[in-house]
User: What shape does this take?
Amino acid sequence: MKRFRNILHVVEPSVSQEAGLARAVSLAENSQAMLTLIDVIPEEMLDLSPAPRGPSPVTFRESVMSERRSRVESLIAPHADRVDHHIEVLIGITFIEVIRAVLRDDHDLVIKTAENPEWSRLLFGSDDMHLMRKCPCPVWLMKPEETPNYRRIVAAVDVDVHRDVPNKQLLNDRILDLAASLALSDFAELHLVNAWDAPNAGFVGIWADDPDTTERHIVEMEQSRHQVGMDRLTYRLRERIGSDAYDYLSPRVHLPMGVARKQIPQLVEKLRADLVVMGTVARTGIPGFIIGNTAEALLHQLQCSVLALKPPGFVSPVTLT
Assistant: This one.
């Protein structure tokens, strides 16, 4: 199992989080990591005017923070003797304070139960999406009814066969390493998916004498390139985790033809996957455009837990000041 040193668990009061916390504790225990529980109180909750002759604003604020700390203490109490842990109760906007905690204390993993807003069919709420877009370390968002052990894990990679992009290769390797580590830990099936397309094939009728044959040739060549790209990824994975572990996992490779935003959710639903491990950063270098359109579309469709990673060198737009 990949070892983390400093795990941050974000308390999400709106949903049941015992299952997510249990997994966070287990991961911290197995990694001998520090586990921090952070609860963020919205500023507006403390700006409510107290009743006439009520406590002063300072007393009211201290009372609310104390009550929230007691709630978090009761949450971790059943696991308190298993891991080194501490609690932080902060005031502000949840995703901003969480990212600042990551920057300040060098957390290497954020775990949070998804908000699952009642008014929406989406699993992930606003803070969830902000964390996946902007948090520099991996973000693991879990369903409220998280299972103790995953049965099927999907690692979604983006194999660029037309140009060499070092950071993308490193991100793909990180995605596979984490997915493989979790699959080994949970005795789960590991599925690797790369959706591909051949958009140029649709235009061969403009210039080709035999459009059908030419189109088929272009599609076959594109599929072959992506198969070679996946073969390289799996070969490197075998080298990193060892042949015995790789053969035990026997990852299933999927190369569906079509756009990723459609093909990957369909595969995840078909497999009834418990977790998708994926990258969330766009290819473009435009400042502020920090999540890809494909990743955004995927996240709005997935109904399972997600572990989202950034490439090496990612700099969050959130700062400590």
In short: The chain has ten helices and ten strands.
